[in-house]
Amino acid sequence: MNTEVKQTIWIKPLTDWYKVNTDARQNTINENTTCGRVIRDHNRKWIVGFYKYIGICSILEAKLWAVYTGMMTAWDQGVQQLEVETDGNQVEDSLAKKASSGELDVRIIHEPPQSVIKMLQDDCEGYPQ
Q: Where is the RNase H type-1 domain (predicted)?
């Protein structure tokens, strides 16, 4: 059995473009799903992060919700040139864990939480400025 863990490196979008990274999680016991997303610019600057409790659905449906809400949030922030990437990394996974059951609203985060700052740096490690 191969137990190798693949680390995802964040690759910046083109100049003047933004990237939304999304991830979804499903609780294996109760099948509740959540998603987390981060929008960054081509300089890696955090624009906005957000997470959402979705409820009981398939992981594919949760990923589609993540993409949809990511695109809607980007539009609300005035972002129109957007690259979408699913199956995010540690940052999006961490945000997805923050969503709690029963809260159906999207929770917007304008500053990166302390818990993800190192992860943001690690995402870009080894990638040229």
A: 21-100
Give the C-alpha separation, 11 to 42, whole Å.
9
List domains and CATH numbers for the chain. 14-95 (3.30.420.10)
Instruction: Look at residue 55 and give its three-state secondary structure.
Output: strand
pLDDT digits over 4-33, tens only?
444 567 888 999 999 999 989 888 888 899
Chain segment 58-79, per-residue pLDDT in tens: 989 999 999 999 999 999 999 9
Q: Amino acid identity of 26? A: Q
User: What distance in Å separates the CA atoms of residue 16 and residue 42, rounded to the nearest whole number?
Assistant: 6
* CA gap 128, 110 in Å, rounded: 26
Tokens 């997303």 belong to: 37
